[in-house]
Specification:
Elements (H helix, E strand, L loop, with lengths): L6 H4 L13 E6 L9 E4 L15 E5 L1 H5 L6 E6 L14 E5 L9 E6 L2 E10 L2 E5 L8 E2 L6 E11 L4
Length: about 160
């Protein structure tokens, strides 16, 4: 198992060596967040099909930090670069919430470091060991070979996206 790369070395932009492999553009420590705030969360769901009359009832207040972050001291954000995870709903420019306190399991989307390069992929397992599976048919599965430096840095626990 590889030694973790210090966070301060990982904060700057990362230049990909293999397209679709290194798909992490930037890492943001959780301490960069502004103070918490609550926003209204309406009790009725919003249909994505036909419009329905709006409910004027606010069920509760929702703090985005409380919703997205379970363990603040073990959580940070990364900005995605590339399209190797689009079939999992992860797109270029999205900000992923990474929780280092969660134990990675097969099937989890993880932030991994393979031979010194960051990547976001689904953690898989083969007969020979771990594998990193993209969510885009245009990219190959990455089999972790003997002698390669590999470490799961954390489990993706959420994502954020701006539309404008």
């Amino acid at each position: 198992m590889a030694t973790a790369i210090p966070l301060d070395l990982a904060i700057s932009n990362v230049t990909p060596c293999n397209p679709g492999f290194n798909n992490v553009n930037r890492i943001y420590p959780i301490g960069l967040l502004s103070p918490t705030f609550d926003l209204p969360l309406y009790s009725s769901s919003v249909p994505a099909g036909f419009p329905s009359p709006a409910d004027e009832h606010v069920e509760q207040r929702l703090n985005p930090n409380d919703y997205l972050i379970d363990n603040e001291t073990a959580t940070f954000f990364v900005r995605v670069q590339g399209d190797s995870m689009i079939d999992a709903g992860i797109f270029h420019g999205d900000v992923l919430v990474i929780d280092r306190s969660r134990k990675p399991k097969v099937g989890d989307i993880v932030l991994a470091v393979l031979d010194g390069e960051f990547t976001v992929k689904t953690l898989g397992k083969s007969k020979t060991g771990p594998r990193l599976v993209p969510a885009n048919k245009d990219y190959p599965v990455i089999e972790i070979g003997e002698g390669q430096s590999f470490e799961v840095w954390g489990v993706v626990s959420g994502s954020m996206r701006k539309f404008k």
